[in-house]
Design brief:
Radius of gyration: 20 Å
Strand order of the largest sheet: 1-2-3
Helix content: 55-70%
Number of domains: 1
């Protein structure tokens, strides 16, 4: 049987639909920003399509054809390399700041966000650790202790950037790997308490965290300042009605909706496709998660199964956090909508992760 025929076809078809649909939604949002007279639209679109979509498809193809068990051997090296790349944003004249965060590096006109690669690397490292310590996962020293040891490096780097949203996604992805490996509920509860205490402590030093929590609890607060984005997002989503205004016919992207190609792109989609379109997008990501978990359950070795769980969790977690923020059910985090939002590095990392997941599906029993 050929390698191509052994790839999980339902998952591959679902990914193709998400990527194609995401490109159409992205094009509609870009047209709205172009009509506003944005000056950097060409570079943003080129970066998204060339680095993100083009490079991502190459990475996806490579990921499919790499034996998933090789990732276990090189997981520590990949993880260390990702930490070094993420730390490079603090190098003068290489890293630069935008929107209050120092998260990007510029190389020959291309902007990269190294923390996107750190998500994949953290999942691989967690899966390799859990596969090697399988018999000791119920011991708090090796279970919770190992989880915290993997998170400490990304935690320090992302807190200094700061990028709390990405840190949250990595924590959930790594936590899901450890949970699937058999870590007890007690340790998951301890991790949640630590996370809540950390957020409480950070709010004393990072006022914007308090602002986002306040806006989440009281959306009507500061409608022309901190609460502006969620207010305009809800207006866009509500004006879509049941079946939407029609593809490309959205109004908010031309006027007041902030970041229509980025954080707010789900609001653009919901206004044009309506309630039914929004539900279809949510169901597509839900089916992606279920199919990914199914792939993990059918793998021949523990490591590959844990990788499938971690990648599925991180990609779908990103999507649901973004959608939830636009609906006002979770605080704003700046997390992109998987396969849809602008960001060449995010698209590249998402497609590369999907390639690894599809590669895992080739080794199912």
């Amino acid at each position: 049987m050929s390698a191509r025929s052994r790839v999980d076809k339902p998952l591959l078809i679902l990914v193709a639909m998400l990527v194609l649909g995401g490109c159409l939604i992205f094009a509609s949002a870009a047209f709205g920003l172009l009509a506003r007279g944005a000056t950097n639209i060409t570079s943003v679109v080129f970066n998204h399509l060339a680095l993100g979509l083009g490079g991502g498809l190459v990475a996806l193809y490579c990921g499919i054809h790499i034996d998933a068990r090789l990732w276990r051997r090189y997981a520590p090296y990949v993880f260390c390399a990702a930490l070094v790349a993420t730390a490079a944003v603090f190098i003068p004249h290489l890293g630069f700041e935008h929107g209050g965060g120092k998260r990007w590096i510029a190389i020959h006109g291309f902007t990269l966000q190294p923390s996107e690669g750190l998500k994949i690397a953290s999942v691989l490292m967690a899966a390799a650790y859990c596969a090697g310590m399988r018999e000791r996962m119920r011991d708090t020293r090796w279970g919770l202790g190992g989880l915290l040891a993997i998170l400490i490096g990304p935690g320090i780097l992302l807190l200094f950037q700061p990028d709390i949203g990405t840190l949250g996604v990595i924590t959930i992805a790594v936590g899901s790997v450890f949970f699937a490996a058999g870590i007890p509920w007690r340790d998951i509860g301890i991790l949640c308490v630590i996370a809540l205490l950390a957020i409480g402590g950070l709010s004393l030093y990072k006022p914007y965290i308090v602002d986002r929590i306040t806006i989440f609890l009281h959306p009507s607060t500061a409608p022309r300042a901190e609460g502006y984005q969620i207010r305009q997002s809800l207006i866009a989503i509500g004006s879509g009605g049941m079946f939407g205004r029609g593809f490309g016919q959205g109004v908010q992207k031309f006027t007041y909706l902030p970041e229509p190609m980025g954080d707010s792109i789900f609001a653009v989609a919901a206004e044009e496709l309506g309630f039914m379109g929004g539900v279809i997008i949510i169901l597509a990501f839900l089916f992606f998660a279920l199919r990914g978990f199914s792939v993990g359950a059918g793998t021949a070795d523990v490591f590959s199964g844990l990788v499938a769980v971690g990648i599925s969790s991180y990609l779908v977690c990103e999507a649901f956090v973004n959608i939830g923020a636009m609906l006002g059910v979770v605080p704003l985090t700046g997390i992109p909508l998987t396969f849809v939002s602008q960001g060449g590095t995010a698209m590249l990392a998402s497609l590369a992760s999907t390639g690894i997941l599809l590669g895992v599906s080739r080794g199912r029993r």
